[in-house]
Amino acid sequence: MDINQYLVLAIFASTIAALVFTDKRPSFIFASSLLALLASQQLVISDIIRNFTNQGLITLILLLLVSSAVDKTSLIKRLGRTLVTANFKTSFWRLFSITFASSALLNNTAIVASLIGPVKQNQYHHASRLLIPLSYAAILGGTVTLIGTSTNLIVDSFLIEHGHPGFNFWDFTLYGLVAGLSCGLLMFLMTPFLPLIENKNNQYNSYFLEADVAPNSELVGKTVEQNHLRNLPELFLIEVSRDGKLISPVNPDFVIRGGDKLIFTGNVQNVDNLSHIKGLDLFAESDGLFRENLTEVIISNRAPIIGQTLKALGFRALFDAAVVAIRRDGESLSGKLGEIKLQAGDFLLLATGPDFTQRHNLTKNFFILSEKKMATKLTKRQEWITFGGFLLTVALAATEVLNLATGLLFFMAVLVMNGVTSNNEIKRNIPLNLIIVIVGALSLATALEKSGLIREIMNALYPWASTVSPFWALVAVYLLTLILTELVTNNAAAALMFPFAYGMVEALGVPLMPFALAVAFAASASFISPYGYQTNLLVFSASNYKFSHFIKFGLPISLCYSSIVLALLKYSYAL
């Protein structure tokens, strides 16, 4: 090997070592690798720019941006409240089915993030018996279609770069469905082996908020338990105000009536879960001010409003703002929100009008602390446009009527024009760290091929490869990718292993497709480590799991999944 190949090999090895043995962010490590490749003249700027404009990367970014808009719809949140019942079997299969199916089309990380709250807050079962299956169901569902997980799109972009037409939308479906459903059944049989862990308490400031039940609300005539009001993530129903009387505590069999005022306490960042319940209006919504940006203030010690209620003050007219929620440290609040007497030091979360910042009485009453970003409720028309438009875009791509990236781009324009999302929101949601990881991994893969290092390695391996069947070469590629995805990240594993898989195909003269599928499926098969896949990390952080819990539960799942995928690839391509 020449000096350039040794340099590329050193950078490659250093990148893997840094990902495995340091706590640096993957984006920092890959950015450093990128700079090292440029500094050592193994790549030029045009190589980097080409990777930034990679079709798979652009499709992935558009898909993530669209998924964040689809996540605003009420569907997942409404389903989340009804998932967990007293029957564990029913709860498990509801959770698995919804997560598996939705992850085939939507961003599986967003699905898991939306469902963690209802699972943690359920009143019937230890969340630790459901959270790992939730993550694994999302991983398995992501392998069913081309757009189910980012690794599929990354491998697809490599195929296109090497002159292959790329994957079809349904190329993954047979393997993903058979392996996914089989692993789902195995997970259900293994749930008794999951630990029984008390729920982890998240740290947040508990606010006091009020919501009115409209006469035609979907809640009317049903009990608290039937309405699943005890499954709201980090929001707790503590009182009901009815006909001027406060009812507390609120029993599960308490029947909701029109005109009731429901008093909640909890994490105000999850208030959008209330706004998705039909006929339940937050205090600020009645003033027409509830919107995406909420302002948090604290009442000053010399404020003229101290000792008065929101109702008596005419708060809306006085400040061009409505109070969404209130928090008083060291004291539990009770009663209607509009009738609580304000005190110095109270924290208020305000939905503000256009004249709020111009009011001269602000500094006399408040210290303004911060703005909070809240997910705003979509209108019925916006929900239909968002969900219907997404399904139409996917259907056109699946039937090869329209290129997926083109369809997503036009769909994004439709979302902006209809106010579902905005230019500022798109800028905030651009996954910069993920882009750096993928571009860094693609660039490292480019350097491996451009320097001839892949060719040298394949020449060294050819005596071994020529003595084994193509299937065992496929198994070797699969296992190396599987090990790498458990140690680093799924996207990095896919990008770094594809050049080696392609080199193996060139050396053996065998079809490329089964090896490309093997890399894609293996890169998604992170069942043993909580750090190899984002959904695993989410549930790991949400509970008090130990690393050993993932190993004990995940190893049989990994063996089942891998055996099925490899067997199907062997017989599908007669290897």
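Second entry:
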Amino acid sequence: MISIEGLKVEFGVKPLFQDASFVINDRDRIALVGKNGAGKSTLLKILCGKQKQTAGTVAVPTDLTIGYLPQVMNLQDDTTVVEEARKAFSNVAEMAEKVERLSKQMEERTDYDSEDYMALVERYSAAHDHYLMMGADNCEAEIERILTGLGFNRSDLTRPTNEFSGGWRMRIELAKLLLQRPDVLLLDEPTNHLDIESIQWLEQFLAQSAKAVVLVSHDRAFINNVCNRTLEITCGKIVDYRVKYDEYVVLRKERREQQLRAYENQQKEIADIKDFIERFRYKPTKAVQVQSRIKQLEKIVPIEIDDVDTSSLRLKFPPCLRSGDFPIICDDVRKDYGEHTVFDHVTLTIKRGEKVAFVGKNGEGKSTLVKCIMGEIPFTGSLKIGHNVQLGYFAQNQAQLLDETLSVYQTIDNVAKGEMRLRINDILGAFMFGGEASEKKVKVLSGGERSRLAMIRLLLDPVNLLILDEPTNHLDMQSKDVLKEAIKAFDGTAIIVSHDREFLDGLVDKVYEFGNAMVREHIGGIYDFLHKRNIASLDELGTHAKTEKENEQKPQQSPTSPKQSYADHKERQKRIRKAERAVEDSEKKIAELETRIKQLDEQLCKPENAANLTLVNEYTETQEKLDTEVEKWEKLCEELDNILED
């Protein structure tokens, strides 16, 4: 689909990357990885034509459509949510005209056996298929499906977009992009503004409905569930690993060890050559050999190795005072904004040393309860902070509270105590402030860099109750691992508001679910909670909680027989497994047919096979089988969705 050859990008003396060559194929799900500043976002901009490369070619077919979601964009404020989403179908009329024009050309032609006519038929088929894939016949239903999948309520669809926060408006832009059904989706950190339910919905959508996807994300679970291929930008090169992220991590470790061995061998060779030159430089009898060694030294191409691996770094919290046995006790807490009740009857107790997660859809009150605990907003009910509790709070606006006149190093040096002062450079390096970056003034840092700096500052402050509100949004995977290990080793109490499943996995031992003005307690880790609440998908969490609340308010009726409920559940799970197997079988057939078409394509490209009717007929039959199987796959996916929604 898209072919990249000899790509080079440079902004200064040293290229960002060079000699990059790879191909993006149909149905590829590519994770673009690399340290911050390696050029991931730059590469996405080049692929979609928003930025020019220094050298090399990016070959994009003329009829290929590309959808690009940047991290930051200019948003419109003059429409409602649904009206803004309808803009995704603005090119439907244009595509309809193209299909009509090609159809008319076919009617006027009579040279049915010519190559030009066959090419015209192919263009018509592709345009017609694309027109149908754009959802022209069911635009409104598709708009509602995408928007509700991304977390909007039906009542939100008619609200003006300027009533929503930046994160929700980014969801609208993502919805518009998904509605356009482009041939290639380029997504730059799409999960930063999504909650767990919306992330899982997006995973399913990309797996079932998207064609080719290239994405940048620091959400390990998300890219593992979506991607089947990993492109790494490292040492100014792009390395293609045709495996999922977890497998890539293993292969990358092996590759780095090989690089290290090769580097050490080369350094030994260079040292030997230099030693020979120094020893015999002034001996006339060795002049020829010395000149030969000098030329040999000049020809050596230095082996580059990846940056020093700091994954072994362990960041420890400074010693803190012991708090009371129950740092947080809520009893019948309620919070209203006008006539809107955020939550009611919240009764919970958090024990000393517990690590708990607050999860739920955006807007359900997670951050609101945190603000109640911090004493920032009024509420009704009883909320007690335990004896000797020292609070450490990382909020969304934490970065704005930093002193802009200080450097990065000074900011951390001012709060570091004891042995931590000797490891400031290591800590800064682990959070992407190594080298000259530590001397930058806070006022020149980006929003993401400020957030990371505020996180380091908080981690070095002696507290025994840590509250983190979405701490991982601006951290890469290595920094998240450092933070996660630090919290696990923390002997105090921690409350984490996060949508990052991989970060929460193995970190928390209790989950509080927010939804429909209720807060429900779940004992166990995040995946225990997801498994327990996996009614089919997390999209049903809100509905399930609402039903439970309504049932509490209704008069009690005779309950359904437990045996009948179990039988219904078992039958439903059986239908789901059967539908999933059918989808998997269909996907395998599609992959086999696509492989065969590719083989036939290669054979037909050879001059000796140009007139081979057997191959031509097999190619036509295989293409028809593929089209039929794709239609069957779409129906099976729809049937699976219907079962999950029942």
